[in-house]
Amino acid sequence: MVVCKVCGTENEQGAAFCGSCGSFLEWNGEPAVDDAPTAPAPTAAAPLAAVPTTSPSSSQTGSVASPPPDPGTGALLVCPACGTANEPSRTFCKRCATELAPPPAEPPAPLPAGRSGPPLALLGGAAAVIVLVLLGGAFLLSRGSPSDSATEAPSTSADVSPGASGLVAGSPSAIPPATGSPASSPSASPASSAIPPPATPPPSPTPTPATALTGQIVFTADKNGNANVWVWNTADQSQHKLVGGSGSQSDTSWAWDLSAVVYRTADGLRIINADGSAPAVPDLTHHGADLNPAWSADGKLIAFASTRSHGQGPLNGSLDIYTRPVADNTVTHRLTNDPADDWDPNWSPDGSTIAFASRRTGDGHLFLMNADGSNQREIDLGPGIYDDPSFSPDGQWLAFTRRQKAGALKELYVVHPDGTGMRRLTNVNVNQSDPTWSPDSKLIAVARGGTGSPIVIVDVATGEDLVQLGVNGAANRWPDWR
Question: Is residue 168 part of a domain?
Answer without folding.
Answer: no
